[in-house]
UniProtKB/TrEMBL annotation:
May be required for ribosome biogenesis. Keywords: Ribosome biogenesis, rRNA processing. One of its GO terms (molecular function) is rRNA primary transcript binding. It is found in: Nucleus, Nucleolus. This is Ribosome production factor 1. Its main location: nucleus. Residues 141-324 form the Brix domain.
Length: 362
């Protein structure tokens, strides 16, 4: 019994000695590994301080996670910006000029119909067109605003707000009368404009603007209508003062005639006491309308407050003379190939292609 106990104790002591040796070996092996890891950590920290280093074939699109990909893209963009800034600072006066960012406006093809307002031919045309009587102060604007048959509440409110914005404007309901019967009555009562607001699915979607008595007549598509109650941080309702009118980017032949048509809606002499401005801004063939009140805070700063309503116009056609849908002569028509026509063409091509294949099979 004693001999067995001694042997077991010796074997246990031998095993403990072996485990101690193994642990010492593992510790000696781990020491250089830990040193290598610390060195790698220091290198990565130095790299992160100097900037992210990636292989030459690295692409941000290879990152699968969307948030990390976006963060990495922003980081690389910021690094490029800082690098360019340092290079420009180092070059000083010899630095190349800054690149102009590409926008839709500066990449547009130059319109050949753009004219110089000081051109003699343009001045002659403006002196003899239908609006010359207004610009020569021979007539004062008087506007009749009406709607399509059976207008809904939103269209009615839109007309009422237009009447508060345009001086000497009156709102009347058609009651089923045709425009050809309305126009002679307007001329006999001294109106210079007839404005018709059309609607579709209870939303205003069209505007017909007819200059009286000799035309022209413009048809616009109306979109993005925002009434006063739908606008945030709007000012109080507009006063009865005559507003100022701003016309932007009406530089082509067609733009000149449309701009003069909008200008003739308002009286000549604005009342600056009211501090109200009506803006027609033409951009990419869309006309954005805004109505503001301004206040001078000091010599350099001006505060503006939108009064409403706001809407966007897109010219569909310009017709000579007063409104005539059947026999009217059009100066300009916006032609767009509709989606239904395109889908019909695709269907016909597919049909002919399939029938040709069937004939070959037979």
């Amino acid at each position: 019994m004693d001999s067995t106990k001694v042997t077991t104790s010796e074997s246990v002591s031998k095993k403990k000695g072996k485990t101690k040796k193994l642990k010492q070996k593992i510790k000696t092996d781990e020491a250089p590994v830990q040193e290598m890891e610390q060195a790698e950590i220091e290198v990565t920290e130095n790299k992160s301080e100097s900037g992210a280093c990636f292989p030459p074939t690295f692409s941000v699109s290879e990152i699968k996670n969307k948030q990390r990909r976006h963060a990495m893209f922003l980081k690389l963009k910021e690094e490029k910006r800082k690098k360019k800034k340092k290079e420009r600072k180092a070059l000083g006066d010899q630095a190349p000029p800054k690149e102009v960012p590409k926008t839709i406006e500066n990449q547009r093809i130059y319109d050949e119909t753009t004219v110089n307002p000081e051109d003699e031919e343009v001045a002659f045309d403006e002196g003899t067109d239908e609006f010359s009587a207004y610009f020569n102060r021979l007539t004062n604007p008087k506007v009749l605003i009406t709607t399509s048959d059976r207008p809904r509440g939103r269209t009615v409110r839109f007309c009422e707000q237009l009447a508060t914005m345009i001086p000497h404007a009156h709102v009347y309901y058609r009651r089923g009368l045709a425009l050809k019967r309305v126009i002679p009555q307007c001329i006999s009562r001294g109106f210079t404009y007839l404005m018709v607001i059309n609607e579709d699915r209870k939303v205003p979607n069209g505007l017909v603007l007819c200059h009286l008595p000799d035309g022209p007549t413009a048809h616009f598509k109306v979109s993005s209508v925002r009434l006063r109650k739908e606008m945030k941080r709007r000012g109080k309702d507009p006063t009865e003062h005559v507003p100022e009118v701003i016309l932007n980017n009406f530089t082509t032949r067609l733009g000149h005639s449309i701009g003069r048509m909008f200008a003739a809606l308002f009286p000549h002499d604005p009342q600056f006491v009211g501090r109200q401005v009506a803006t027609f801004h033409n951009q990419r063939d869309f006309i954005f309308f805004r109505f503001h009140r301004y206040i001078f805070k000091n010599e350099k700063k001006v505060g503006i407050q939108e009064l409403g309503p706001r809407f966007t116009l897109k010219l569909r056609s310009l017709q000579k003379g007063t409104f005539d849908s059947k026999f009217g002569e059009y100066e300009w028509v916006h032609k767009v190939r509709s989606k239904s026509k395109i889908s019909l063409m695709i269907y016909c091509l597919y049909f002919f292609k399939s029938s040709y294949r069937w004939r070959n099979l037979c």
